[in-house]
Design brief:
- The protein has about 140 residues and is an all-alpha fold.
- The protein is about 45% helix and about 5% strand.
- It folds into two domains: about 30 residues; about 90 residues, Winged helix-like DNA-binding domain superfamily/Winged helix DNA-binding domain (Arc Repressor Mutant, subunit A, Orthogonal Bundle).
- Its EC number is 2.1.1.63.
- It is an enzyme of class 2 (transferase).
- Its cofactor is Zn(2+).
């Protein structure tokens, strides 16, 4: 459960606009998940997300197509990204994700339904999935 006072950062008004957008999005994700869809996605300037590659295609597809509270298998995400035979490459893209949570690689699971690996650790991935499931159920 989120605490009564959910603060991401003090002094937000002194931050550059992209950082303000990022903190607003993260605050919404953890404290008011229903509002994340109404917020602009923060600008991503990481070099991996600038060059044309399958990894970039996978990460953008994940961001755009797999919504809060949903999960997708590596194979399903490969299909969505345009290469049904690239499930292993999707795993590599998830490992390369420079901004987990914002680009929700925790939503990618094994075809068996098991959660699979996560750079932040197994417990963190399971917590994020449970957080989204609980919040989605509250909204239903």
């Amino acid at each position: 459960e989120p605490s009564v006072a959910c603060e991401v950062c003090e002094g937000a008004e002194e931050m550059p606009e992209p950082l303000q957008q990022c903190t607003a999005w993260l605050r919404a994700y953890f404290c008011e998940p229903a509002t994340t869809g109404t917020l602009p996605v923060p600008a991503f300037h990481h070099p991996l997300l600038q060059r044309d590659s399958f990894t970039r295609q996978v990460l953008w597809t994940l961001l755009k197509d797999v919504k809060f509270g949903e999960a997708v298998s590596y194979k399903q995400l490969a299909d969505l990204a345009g290469n049904s035979r690239a499930a292993r490459a999707v795993g590599g893209a998830m490992r390369s994700n420079p901004i987990p949570i914002l680009i929700p690689c925790h939503r990618v699971i094994r075809s068996s339904g098991e959660s699979g690996n996560y750079g932040g650790g197994q417990l963190m991935k399971e917590w994020l999935l449970a957080h989204e499931k609980l919040q989605k159920e509250k909204l239903a």
